[in-house]
Structure formats: structure tokens, C-alpha cells
Amino acid sequence: MYKLVKPFFFSMGPEKAHHTVTSGLRFFNKLWGSKALLKSCFVLEDAILETEVFGLKFKNPVGLAAGFDKNAEYVDDMARLGFGFIEIGTVTPKPQPGNDKPRMFRLVEDEAVINRMGFNNQGADVAAGRLKFFKERHGLIIGGNIGKNKTTANERAVDDYRYCFLALFDHVDYFVVNVSSPNTPGLRDLQEKEPLTELLNSLQILNQEKDKPKPILLKIAPDLEWSQLDDIVDIVKETGIDGVIATNTTISRDGLKSNADLVQQAGGVSGKPLTDRSTEVIRYLSTKSGGAFPIIGVGGIHSPQDALDKLNAGASLLQLYTGFIYEGPALISKICKAVIKQRRQLT
Known about the structure:
Elements: H1 2-10, H2 14-29, H3 34-42, E1 51-53, E2 56-58, E3 62-64, H4 75-79, E4 85-91, E5 104-107, E6 112-115, H5 124-132, E7 141-146, H6 157-168, E8 174-178, H7 193-208, E9 216-220, H8 226-239, E10 243-246, H9 260-263, E11 268-271, H10 275-289, E12 295-298, H11 304-313, E13 317-320, H12 322-327, H13 330-346
Parallel strand pairs: 3-4, 3-13, 4-7, 7-8, 8-9, 9-10, 10-12, 12-13
Antiparallel strand pairs: 1-2, 5-6, 6-11
Helix pairs in contact: 5-6, 6-7, 7-8, 8-10, 10-11, 11-13
């Protein structure tokens, strides 16, 4: 079915297509019988898919990556497609429009996307307000991806992350600290060892003041050098955060085949060009740390085999975004079927 409608969506600009799909899904979900129909088409339930990571039980290991539902508007709608968890955001303390349009480009020949969205969102308080009324989770885990406003200097970035952490704390199950987007000027400088350690320690202090602390994860770029990945391992152990998401988009343009005018657009590349690098980063972190912390694998998952490669490299959970755009919602259940088959073979 998705193959039939995909050309229609791809005839639109990426942002217009995104809004058309999400609003269309929301309308469909209001129709009688829609929930049962989507469940029969896309949702795969099996106890062997359940995955417990950093103290949380996920009904399956396939999640929706941050960036798709920035403002927590479509959590219930996307959950009906079979995701085991959904990560909202990136949210910032104050609303911000993001970068000027156009700011998202499809590289169809590469099965990739370039985006320079710039953390466009309605603010942490709006996202928290929506999640407050999302009561019927049915076992769905929700993550909160947090960042800083573009106008906030790096010297005061900690204040922005603390604000978002406190605003979302009662409404999400885990947090992701995003310092790896290439679309906010200077943000990636926060990945350096000293400022990153300071930021994570500050959030951990807030976290430990709570009766029930929440898991905190760090999302990293695929462009880090090996020595920087060594620093990440040390920082995770030193600060006591719960895990890493590997990886965000890349600023590399190596090997891209699409039109040069598209390839040269500023922003981060996601999709198939990231498949091997993100798996490589997962394997390195897992091996270097001796499996000391969980890793969520994201980047270039377009097939069940891509997903299994990341799990076999050391990932505990997976996230989709660009692969979901190119392959459609059936990719979720296809991955779950592959995971079931592999896990049964190992038991």
C-alpha cells in the first residue's frame, strides 16, 4: 500500500509531505474501526520482543527517533503503527521557529535526507502540556529529547537543559541530551569532554534529587573521531548516565550520488549513507566499554538486516526516521519479525 502512495507524498516538498501524512493519520485514527485495522496491518505482539533496558520494559525494541514528533502532537497516532517507544523533541525552553525554509531535502538516489531544521519547536512547556493528557500508554515508553535555544550561549547551555529536564520530568520515561545536531551553531562544541561532563553532571544532580530518577542518555554524532569516542565512554562512566544513542546526522558528504545542488545543501545527512558508520560507532562503543552501558542504534535502518546488524554490533534498542520515510510503516513489523526469528534461534 505504501508503495502506491509514496510517489504522491514524494511529489511534495518534505515538510509539506510530513504534515500531510501526520494530519492524515490523525484524521484516519478518528474513524470507527481504524485502530483495529492498523493493528491488524502493522502491530506485531510477541512476548519474546519485550526488551528491558535501563530499568524500563519496552514491548518491542523498535522506536521512533526524535525529530518526527517534535511537539508531542502525534504520540498516540504513531504508537498505533507498532512502535515500541517514541521519542519526542528536540524541545527547547522557549519556542523557536528554526531555520529558514526550505530546510529539508530528499536525496532520493541515496535514500537519504538532508535537514537543517534548527530545533523548530513550540517549547518544552507545550510538549509537557500535551503529554500530561496522554494517559492511555498501553505499555508505550516515551522519551524526551532536550536541547538549547539557538540564542542561548554555550556558557549558559546548562540552564536550558535543566529547564527542559524539569518541565518534562513528570511526563516522559527517559531523557536524551542532544548536543550533536549540526544545525544549531556551536552546539557540537558541547560534545567536548569538559563542557559535556559539566552538563551531564548538572542534570544528574537534578535527577538524583527526585524520588524516582529517570534514565538519562546522550545522543552523539557519527562524525566523532576514535579518541572522542573514547572520551564518550569515559564520560558515561564518570557521570553515571544510563546510555548512548548512536548516532545523529552526519555532516559528511562522502559517496553521495544525488544531484550536486542537493548534496551541497547545508545540514545533516540521515538515511542509508549512515548505515555502516552508525553500526561501526555502536560496535566500537560496545567493545571499548565492555558492554558497560546500553546503546540505542539509529541511522540508516532501511531493512530488517540493517536492524539486526546494529543489534549484533551491541545495540539494545533501535530507532527509525529516514528509513521509515522511504520504506513505510511496514518496516516496523518486518524488523520485529526478524528479531523474533533471531531470538528464537538463540534460545
